Amino acid sequence: MKRRWNAPIWLGFLFVLSAPVVYFSVFIRFPALRDHPWLTFPVFGIGLMLMAFGVRCAYHEPWIYRGKIFGTILAVLSIAVVTLFGAGVYYFARQLPTSGGAPKVGEKAPDFTLQDMDNHNVTLSSLLHSTPAEGDKLAGVVLIFYRGAW
Description:
Elements: H1 7-25, H2 31-35, H3 40-60, H4 68-90, E1 113-115, E2 121-123, H5 124-128
Antiparallel strand pairs: 1-2
Helix pairs in contact: 1-3, 1-4, 3-4
């Protein structure tokens, strides 16, 4: 009997390799898909299931299917790719570098100019030096910095 080419191993490996390529070329542009890659992990899952099926066929029916050694090596490489992708998205991408020029807590903020919702320029110093409303004791500004989706 002629041995067959074990297609699930190769298809599974192609699925696993295509998932990060699609993520970094398409999905990374959209915040909902970039921050939590909920479409990328099912592609990884399909690839790993195909590889598991192919390796199972290679070990249970070696007289029909090829791929005992090479299928196992590709499966281990695929698991490493999935692990590194998950670590990269959920750990390494979230490690923001510290900024040496950022003001410290309690330090006076540098003067800056931004546009308000009516496209008028507003400076920090103009807000600090504006006259308080009737009954107010102090005029101050609270600055809130948050990281948005850019």
